[in-house]
Amino acid sequence: MAMRGSTSPSPKPGASLDAGTAAAPADAAPSAGAHAGAGSSGKRPQTLARRACDACRARRRKCFFADGPPPQAQSGSQPQSQQSQSPPVQCHDCLRLGITCSFLVPTRTRGPKRRKRLPSTPRESSDDQQPDQQPPNRPEEPEWHFSAAQPDQRKDIRPLVAIVDHSSPFGPSPSHLSVDGSHHGMSPVLAEQHASPSVTSHPFPTDELCSRALLHVILNDYLDLIYPLIPVIHRPSFRASLASNKDVDDPEFLALIIAITAVTVGLLPSRFPVYHQSMAPDAAARFKTRMAMINCCIDICMRLRTRAYWDQVSQRKWAVCYLLSVGCFQTGQTNRSRMLEVESMQIGRLLGIHRISDYEGLNYIETQLRKKAFWLIFYTYAHAYHQCGREERLAFIDHTMLHEVSFEALFPLQVDDEQILENKILDHPPSPTSSPSTARAGPAPQPRPAFTLTSGFNLHSRVFYKSAEIALSPGNCDWARRHTPEEQLARLRQLVQEIRYMLDDAPGPMRQWASTGDSGVTENRSHTLESFPPRNARDDWGVIGRGAEMNDANAKALPGQVEIMRANLHGTHLWIQSSLLDRIDVLLQEIAQRATSPAESEAAVAALKANWAEREDVCRQMLHLLHSMHYSYLEPNGLYLTYKVRDVGVALLNCPYEAHERPARRAAEYMQDFARALSRLDRSEIVNTSSLRSWVDTDREKAFST
């Protein structure tokens, strides 16, 4: 195609001269003698061309030809043999300077690319350039536009894998997806080049939310960072379903991946700018905040509910409600989160996940998923039991159904998902507990099973279960009224001691004083995304990662996942101790108020000060946990960890010492440290009112107005 005119932007002369050389070789140009003879025979008529070659355009001149009118550009449809036999044509200046003229070199259209119109649009259909009319050596031009019309299907690209990159939040990505190091965003060029043909030619139901490549990145972040805390899927089955695009014809799976997107966006605020930069312009304009994207996810899931939606229940429908509830809670939408949480509890009741007898007839995968679902709902029960301001919430477990619950039988097997098949469970290889040096020194101890993510999940569940032991004991539904304050005080102190030391036999990497083994983590305390530690750190995790090869994606992600679970475990462990100490303080103050003699009052005050020493130790441990853990490991725990830290710090306000005493001064310093930590942890977009009455009774408002 010839150039439109000289008013179009001109390319660099050097590049175009090279192209002109390829089209018209210098040895085929007319001789200088012929040109000189033409000049001596008299002035011949000159014709000024309407456009210019590259050399003339660089000198801001138009081409003119001394032998007649300017030649016409060769058509792309002209046979190659005729094009090669046609004599080369040069303008007057190029002929005089002895350089190659690019006047007839076919060039591509300059300027912005045309928008691809639908086939039904007749306007400008004749001007669209066909692929067969393009020159064979046309340079490829990056396409940075995001539009509803997808590019044509290409045959020279490989399909996009189910999960693009298993190391997206921790380091540079492989060749599957380009991540710019300046902002850790997705490159639209490579995202389009590596997209599967089905992505480019057929829209997915998830395109309403984001592109397919970005969806894979978000789901990848869930598998790497959030799955250890919220294991609502079976990883191999989930990856297989995603690779086969099961969401196209399965509304349940579509709702599941949309809900996973919502919880990932809610729990990872530092990743949202990365997601936002990789969105199409229209989606980026709609999703300026995490709350907007999460609400869109909820709307999509609600539209998938047909009239007969609740006629069938499944673990995936439970997971959708639970994940959406968690996502809403992370952005401060307490009331909406509460209602979705009630839905998940109702589905759990219908599934019978609290009765081990109802598990008969399920395959191994579904059995383990429902056991994990029970403990995830149990966490909400324990939070309502310990946390203030949650009395209005419904409880999944009541005392009428305690005889149906066998808690020990409901703990899932401590094996990875890859070893759980539908009809059997593969043997998990044992891992030695000693190093080679200790093995040479003496007889090796008995091997124990390798640490898995389910092992850490069970540790966390046992801490919650132990904390609610009083409420779950048969006949203790009215425990506070049936026992005297002294009896309650003795039982609570015993429970605090049991919980304090219950993690002494935890695996080494899950202990409170464990080291990450990555020097880069301790050197950089920044909470930005660039401070995520690399995956390829040295493996000093003991039994961690021995069950799989380190080139496996799950094994490479395991050290970071263990750190995330360790932060969650010890944050919960310290928060529960602080909550029980609060109850002890209330009982001690009640006993002091009922004292009839000065000796009893002094004994109560002394007990309060002794209890303060334990509380101060809990605060020190919590601060050590926050300062020793990298932010990338604290962030996936979300506002749940933030509120636990806040509850521990608020208890320092009830100091029994005078302001000038050293314990009171230490308490003031601790509170300053807690405030700095909370300013880094609390990334909620609005004020979260989970412990307040955030709903309005409109009927009562009308009564007051009249």
Helix content: 40-55%
Category by helix and strand content? mainly alpha
Strand content: under 5%
- Cα shape: elongated
* Separate helix tally: 28
Taking the sheet with the most strands, its summary is: 2 strands, antiparallel
Taking pLDDT < 50 over at least 5 consecutive residues as the criterion, the unreliable ranges are 1-42, 74-85, 116-201, 429-444, 517-551
Backbone CA Rg: 35 Å
Spatial strand arrangement across the major sheet: 1-2
Number of strands: 4
The span between the termini is 78 Å
Mean pLDDT: 73
Keywords: Metal-binding, Nucleus
Pfam families: Fungal_trans
GO molecular function, one term: DNA-binding transcription factor activity, RNA polymerase II-specific
Protein name: Zn(2)-C6 fungal-type domain-containing protein
Give a description of the structure:
With 706 residues, the protein is mainly α. Among the domains are: 85 residues, no CATH class; 182 residues, no CATH class; 112 residues. The protein is built from 28 helices and four strands. The protein has a two-stranded antiparallel sheet with strand order 1-2. A two-stranded antiparallel ribbon has the order 3-4. It is elongated. The N terminus is likely disordered.
